[in-house]
Sequence to fold (305 residues):
Amino acid sequence: LELAVQADPEVSRRKFENEVARLLEQRSALESRGILLLQSTAYPIVECLFVPRNPLRVPVSATQAGKILLPPGAMMALDVPNVAGRAFKTRFDLSDYDLRAPSLQFWDPWRDEPLLFKDMFRALEYEKERKAHVVLLDDHPVFHRPFLCIRGIREYHEHPQHTGDEWLLYRKHMSLFSIIMSVWRVTVDLIRPVLFIQPNRLQVQWQAEEKD
Amino acid sequence: MADKPKDQKIEIIFIINGQDFSVETNINAPLISAVERALQESGNTGRPASEWELRDSNGVLLEQHRTPKELGLKNGARLFLSLRVGAGGAGRS
Fold:
């Protein structure tokens, strides 16, 4: 995407350093959520490893709940405590920051390349009025790659459908730290993988916990 | 026996955009008053307090009209204050 206006690279670099310094100050808060700031971070890229924590859930046939016998076809959900979603890398590009919002891509931490949408987790936000809604979409109309459709992310603000919700309205009240916390909420905190076993196939659904 | 006045004051640390802002408040006062002071101190004026959400260190959303005493907050509690996520996206597929 070509923009007529660009941030002064020196100003952008200084703001990048401020943002990284804040991440380092809040390192314990990040790490307690399974967010690790990686040493590969270097202007203009900030890389974090996100480690999912909600265990896999598997619906299974159930014949009994406590002492109560259940009717045929009854199901119950079991958690598998030692299995969760795969870790992934968030790669924030702060070029032109903070004239433009940070751009975000999800990368495979093992192969060090962008994740394909078909291989990715799913991200959802939950709100009382809207209920759960998908915020990880497969193809951005401008950037042509999977993107997270939440405020604070370049791909959201530069989406043709969000022209009225400019980043410049929010940049004073947001930081990379707060954006990372929002990303964590919709990709890790709310999300639980559920495995459905069907004849000849397995299906994983990513469900959102109904919590504000 | 009622708390002495000095026992009713606690310090809450609000983390706003990755920076700590310490605010003293009464354990019986709704959190919203401390939230508004923290937003002011951090220069985050211009957006209504209702657009901000307050979470504890476990990510649990706290109701701002409740008091520190009701929420069991102790002196030195660290709370995260940030704008609501604000999402586009699609309905549940």
Q: What stands out?
A: Strands of chain B lie at 9-16, 19-26, 52-55, 61-62, 77-83, 90-91. The radius of gyration of chain B is 15 Å. Helices of chain B lie at 31-41, 68-71.
